Amino acid sequence: MTRTTTVTSVETRVRRRRTTEPGEGRTRLAVTLLVLTALLVVSAVTGLAIGSVQVPPAQVWGIVTHALGADWQQPDWSRARQTIVVDVRAPRVLLGAVTGAGLAVVGTALQALVRNPLAEPYLLGVSSGASLGAVSVIVFGVTLFGPVSLSVAAFVGALGALLLVYATARTGGRITPSRLVLSGVAIAAMLTAVLDLLLLTTDRGNETRAVLAWTLGGVDWGTLWLPSTALLLGVGVLLAQARNLNLLLAGEEAATTMGLDVARFRARLFVLLSLVTGVLVAAAGPIGFVGLMTPHIVRLVVGGDHRRVLPTAALGGAVFLVWADIAARTIAAPMEIPVGVLTALCGGPFFLWLMRRDARRGTDRGVA
Asked: Could you report the per-residue pLDDT of 17-50, keeping only the tens digit for each?
């Protein structure tokens, strides 16, 4: 096949994806985004209302709007309730939404970059690398980069783990989905073992308690800006690169023919995705499977175009993790369960179902 014929065929496939029922696709996307936005608002209000101290939803609205400067109703709540909603629960709910959105977007991009439907930060060891970096900073008290030392260390750990998994899985110039996942699981297990050894050998109880507190997640208004910035950066860059992510769906050869430098593009996005994952893990602790489940569910509704999948996955991941955090705070109250435990209970069966589905379809194809 000549280069001209290849380019023509690729352009035809891309054009067909864009022009198939465009009006219906746009309407479906708009309705989906509107519904998810409404669900996110309802989820956030529920997260602010539920806890050891119950606050009626009407009061939640009043407290939030009052804090934003809109005095549309006379305050009928105590100062203690306002402190609980604004200073304790609101940062946590926002962190849950930001983390869920970020992990969903990272998972979406990873699945396109490595052309593997099972790819996501937790399964590929990226979250484990970020966790090891964050815990190392806590245990050894590293403050080289000041208040962002934890995020910097998590980013370095995430990037190192991702590159190691990719290099390990690449044999003979090709990668299969099963080999990539197995490499990710193996390296994640090794990194987790190193992390456990680090905790067992430290003789400083304060650091161990700090690590436990970190796994439960915790944030205040002074630190929420960092994960929020990472999310905005990640979503903005990935939306700008949505066309290139779409090209990768047709294969590396086709993407190269269309003018994409796949190796350079993949390397740049690996750095970006590691940065976003590292910052989110540093802020919220290790949380898995959000980046696996959300993109697959979203594609069933809006299709495979990343210009539609990315914003929809961000909203879907935010809604999911806000509810997971609500469940973590209430299921065993007054004891609190790490959110990652609940996401794993949901994501594990989903992962097994995906593996069985892909095995039946024979999708263990190689990726260059």
From this structure: 444 456 677 888 999 999 999 999 999 999 999 9
pLDDT at residue 6, as a whole number: 45
pTM: 0.88
The two structure tokens encoding residue 305: 């175009």
**Contact criterion met (CB below 8 Å) for 227 and 284:** yes
- Token representation of residue 57: 């939803």
CA 143, CA 153: separation in Å to the nearest integer? 10
Instruction: State the amino acid at position 351 in one-letter form.
Output: F
Q: Is the distance from CB of 155 to CB of 133 less than 8 angstroms? A: yes
* Nearest CA-CA partner of 289 in 343, 248, 213: 343
CB burial of 216-234 (b: ≥16 within 10 Å; e: otherwise) equals ebebeeebbebbbebbeeb
Residues 6+ apart with CB under 8 A from 363: 117, 177
pLDDT for position 2: 47
Note the pLDDT tens digit of each residue in 108-125: 999 999 888 888 999 899
Q: Where are the alpha helices (DSSP H) in 285-338?
A: 290-302, 306-330
Among residues 144, 122, 113, the alpha carbon closest in space to that of 294 is found at 122
CA torsion sign for 105, 106, 107, 111 is: positive
